[in-house]
């Protein structure tokens, strides 16, 4: 595997494996999304995740990673990321973020989406829409001839243009044989950070995390769950994206 400025560049065969890994991950997210209904415990989503991994003969990428105990990160309302599946029951109007990945033939997938439970408020709908639009804007910049900072700037422009806040404690990342590879992919521009030209063969997990209120977060007593400091709603969308000679390819789609 070649490297460019410390970033692993994947060849066509490696990207093909990652495409399949991410396709499986996206299919599992599809199953989770279909199961979202008021009155369901979040642990039910973990059970779906585990069953899907067995069915597709893949290993949950998150479970055991740095001690994380579950296959799924399931974050509700003010929980930004890394929420534990539990006996918590989702209610009408909640929003739930699913973040998960699998390991297939030695390569890791990673993707996330936020889903409304039943009928949600216009405020929640707008938050999810803006977060998804910020991801789409970032992906549009993820191509040769652009800098990594162009990806970051695209997220920040959409989010702050809507009056929302980019959560800054967590960032996207390169991905491949390891869950987290170089480069880090911030969702905001960091002044003075050296520019990184995007190259074919890079695979980036781009993942805006957006809050209605403050960008500041606290970590709960479980050591993992990140919540907005002001308990405002947060949303999270993520795709794994391969940079190609002609542009890019979103790997984390189920079809």
Keywords:
five-stranded antiparallel beta sheet; 29% helix; alpha+beta; single chain; 4 helices; 19 strands; 255 residues
Radius of gyration: 17 Å
Structural class: alpha+beta
**Percent range for helical residues?**
25-40%
The profile of the biggest β sheet is: 5 strands, antiparallel
Instruction: Give the termini distance in whole angstroms.
Output: 27 Å
Mean pLDDT: 98
Strand line-up in the sheet with most strands: 12-11-13-18-19
DSSP strand content: 25-35%
Q: Multimeric state of these chains?
A: single chain
What is the string of helix and strand elements? EEHHEEEEEEEHHEEEEEEEEEE
Instruction: Work out the number of β strands.
Output: 19
The number of helical runs is: 4
> Given the C-alpha coordinates, what overall shape results?
globular
Taking pLDDT < 50 over at least 5 consecutive residues as the criterion, the unreliable ranges are none
